Amino acid sequence: MGLLAATMSAAACEDPRLPLEYMRRAAAVGGPAGMGIFPNTLDDELSRSLVDELPRPVAVDWDSIVARDTLRVVLTFNSTGYFIYRGEPMGFEYDLLDAFADAHDLTLQTQVVTDRRDLLRALNLGQGDVVAARLVAVEEYREEVLTSKPLYQTRPVVVQREPGAPLPAGDSIDIRMPLPDGPPEQIALNARLLRRPSDLGGEEVFVPAGSDYYEHIVELADSLGNPIELVEVEGAEEMEPLIEAVARGQIRLTVSQENLAQLSTARFANLVATPVLGVEQDVSWAVRKTSPVLLAELNSWLESNEGQRLLSILYTKYFVDRKGYQRRLEDEYLVASADGRISAYDSLLIRYADDVGWDWRLLAAQVAQESRFDPVARSWAGAQGLLQLMPRTAREMGVTNPRDPEDNVRGGVKYLTWLTGLWENEIIDENERLKFILASYNAGRGHVLDAQRLTEKNGGDPQNWDDVAYWLLQKSKRSVYRDPVVRHGYVRGLEPVQYVSKILKRYDRYRNIDQ
Predict the structure, then answer these.
(1) Catalytic residue among 143, 370, 432, 456
(2) Beta partners for residue 147, in sequence order
(3) Catalytic (active site) residue 332
(4) Could you read off the pLDDT of 132-150 as tens digits, one per residue?
(5) From the DSSP assignment, how many helices (H) and strands (E) are in the chain?
(6) Conformational region of residue 69, where left means phi above 0, alpha means psi within -120 to 50, and beta covers everything else
(7) Residue (of 251, 278, 247) closest to 263 by Cα position
(8) What is residue 159's predicted lDDT score, i.e. its pLDDT?
(9) DSSP per-residue codes, 352-396
């Protein structure tokens, strides 16, 4: 999950949102030289919420989005709304917006923020058109942005450990924060189960930085007349790391959306999602105040038969299917944190991408298309490994074990480098050349050369991929593949054309992962 560093979310000790004595205690906590767990002075920047110091929204609405053929969405990585699984972007909110974009002939472009508190800022700056990040539509957000019809409703709930329940196997999360006294095992045994919201009085509750429930907990503390020691955790902009920290005995309490908390009890049997802290609240998308037509289009689609049908299917898939949720989180191919990771083979791809002069994420996009990062994948035709090398190609590239990830990637990159050399002087434009290289990797260079000759014969531009792709598609027709300029016969041209398109589309998504 990465390193979590806890920091108080207050500008000064006079901040009424936290008990004065707790803030003094937090500021005094020390650690190794140069590495205090809490800063000695509480940073004003760390206290900001999603709506603090928002820039004026850019004037971009539906007509501009349609004109550019692209809908931009601002997200955070999390285990239900948006993640990368076996190289493919997925998630409840991502899948919904992808379907919406497809229904309106738009390309969906993702912009990932690594700090949840930057969501609305990125929106107003025009870096995205929609915020999709399990956003609870609280009143303070509605004053600054427009919120869509609810995607679903859920309640805030306390997540705690069942007293006496064993801690899960595996390593603890590395959280640099002061933990309660005593080892985790003793803490778990001695903790009392909280049954009512009033039981939170005097307790220490950890929430992610920028939590939608911050003000709600503060209001609850005010109504109880008994301080709740509230800690915002830097680097835990989503709930999953804190829920896991509760399960592992590192912290005692956090507050989560109820549906996510219930899902988490499938993964950690020692968790209890109780008590409920309030009524159901809408989880929605957000758009700029300057985008009312976009909002109307989103709402219209969400209320349509197709939108309602997909909402039901996807909610069941991502929030009701607990076994599926658990399998995803335990799968090494899941990327649900904003650490820039795409697969288990990133370091290998980074090392070899330089050999062909590629961005490693482009190579990752090709591996995802070829094998979905399965090193033992084998096609019906005998292609093997991460880059699906055919036996003859593997031998020619010096690959001795195509199932070995490094041997396969080394051989695949060597083949790509050879193809690059063949096309280097034939296709002048670098971006166009890449498409010819990818198509050649998939279908063989001879078929692409045939399509070039057909293009030129029929008045097209053999340097332009779109023109060549058209004739590559036609090569499945008898009247075309028997043309005198065709030297390599029939090919099912749909496959290499889609291959190029899918890799470049995926590459565009991957480039937004480690913003």
Answers:
(1) 370
(2) 286
(3) no
(4) 999 999 888 988 999 999 9
(5) 21, 16
(6) left
(7) 247
(8) 96
(9) HHHHHT--HHHHHHHHHHHHTT-TT-B-TT--BTTTTB-HHHHHH
